[in-house]
Amino acid sequence: MTWTRKHLLDIESLTAEEITTILDTSRAFKEVGERPIKKVPALRGKTVVNLFIEPSTRTRVSFELAAHRLTADIINFTAEASSLRKGETLKDTAQTLEALNADMIIIRHGASGAPHFLARFLGASVINAGDGAHEHPTQALLDVFTIREHFNHIANLKVTIVGDILYSRVARSNIWALLKLGAQVTLCGPSTLVPKEFERLGCHLTHDLTEAIAEADVINLLRIQHERQNRTSFPNLGEYIRFFGLTKERLDQAKPEALIMHPGPINRGVEIDSQVADCDQSVILEQVTHGLAVRMAVLFLINGGKRPPGSFNLEK
Amino acid sequence: MGSAIEILDANAIDRALTRIAHEIAERNPKGQELVVIGIHQGGVPLARRLARLLRGIYGQDIPFGTIDVGMHRDDLDQRISPNMHPTDIPFNLNTKTVILVDDVIFSGRTIRAALDALNDFGRPKTIQLAVMVDRGHRELPIKPDFIGRTVETRFEDRVEVELHDDGRKDTVSLIRS
What we know:
The complex is a heterodimer of chains A (about 325) and B (about 180). Chain A is α/β, with parallel strands linked by helices. Chain A has helices spanning about 15-35, 60-70, 90-100, 115-120, 135-150, 170-180, 200, 210-215, 235-245, 250, 275, 285-305; strands at about 45-50, 75-80, 105-110, 125-130, 160, 185-190, 205, 220, 260. In chain A, α1 (about 15-35) crosses α5 (about 135-150), α2 crosses α12 (about 285-305) and α5 (about 135-150) packs across α6. In chain A, about 45% of the residues are buried. Chain B has helices at about 10-25, 45-60, 110-120; strands at about 5-10, 35-40, 65, 95-105, 125-135, 145-150, 160, 170-175. Chains A and B meet through α1 and α12 of A and α3 and β7 of B.
C-alpha cells in the first residue's frame, strides 16, 4: 500500500488500508526513537510550521520533536504571540507562512474545519492537529497504534471510550479509526455527553460504567473538557466521579489484561484514580512515546504524497 | 508486462550463496568480528541464509540484523514515500566487520543510503558488500565485494529475486520491458 495524500485532515476520509500504512510506517519510526542516534535525514531541508491557534503543549511538542528527528526545520507560531491577536485573518496568516516557503503546516484551531479551509488554497501540505470538536487524527492514530502494539490486531477488539464524547475530537477520530479497522466500540458517559446519534455510526452506547468496561479489551478515558462546554452537562464534578470515574474497585470488575488509555493531560481523581493511572495496565506514557513515532510517520508519508504516483522510478 | 527469463534456479542460487559464504570466510579469518545485515526487503532473506551458512563454517554464532534505508534515500523528494520496515540491529557495530547484503545492485543508491544509515549504529572496522546479482548501470562509485552472478541488462529491464522459506522454488529472473 502506498500513501498518495498531500494532507492529513481527518480520519473519516481515510481508508482502512491508509490507516494501516500509517501504522506500519510508525513501527519503523518507533525503532528510530530507540537508537542511540535518534535522527534520520528524511526531511532534510523541509520547513514545517506549527500553527497553534489554540493552546496545546503536548501535541505541539510532539510534532516539534518529530520534525527535528526527521531533520526538518520547524517554527512555532502560537496564538498568544501571533498577529491573529492584531486582527489578521487565518487565511492571511497561513499565506504569510507559505510565503516563507513552508512545506507543511500543522494546524491546531478551535474551529472545526479550519484545516480543510487552509488545504483548499495553500500549496503546502496541511496536517490537522485538532480542530474544534471535530477531529484529532494523530491522537487516534497513536491510540490505535498503541492498541495494535499490544494485541497485534484491531479487528474484533472491544474498545470502550468513557467521558465527554460530545465535545471530544479525540473520541470522534478514535471512533472512525476503530470502526474502520473492525473494532467494536462502546461509548460511555452521562446522557448529555453521549448523544444517541453515535449509535448510527455503529457504536454501542451505555451510561453504566461497570457494564461498559466488563468485557472491554481497551478502556480509553477522556478528559472532561471544561473549555469546550458552554453549559454544564452534569450536575457537578463529584457526581461525575461517582458515576464515571475509573477507580481501582471498578477496574477490578474488568478483564485483568484490559489496557487503560488516556490522551492526557490526566485529571487525577476525576476521570481516573491515581492508582489506576499508575497501574501496570496503564499505557498512558507509552501513548506519548507512540505519538512521536506516529507523527514522524505522518510527516514522512505526507512529504511523499505531493506528487502523483508514477512520477518516480523504483530501483531494480 | 515483458518476458521473464530465468537467470538462476534454486540450485544455482544455493551454490552461489555457498561460494559467497566461503569467500567471506577466506577474506575474514576471525569470525568473532563478523555480523551480517540484510537490506529490506530483498536482502533480508538472503542475509538470513548467508548468516546460517557462515555459522556452519565458523562454528560459532554470527549476529544477524536488518536495515531499512527508506529514511536515507536521496530521492524522497521525487517519489511517493517508500513502504517502511523496522530496522533491527540489536548489537553495536563498533570495530565489527559488517557483511551488508542485498539481492540486486543497480544504481548503487540503495547501498549509499545503507552506508549512511549504518553510521547511526556505530563505526564498523570494515563494511563488505555481498549481492546475489550485479546488473550494472552504477551511478555511484560503489562496488560489491561478493557477487552471486553478474548479469548484462538494459537500463529498463528488471531483475527479480524470489526467495522462499516455505519450500517453494527459489528463482532469479530477468524481466525484459
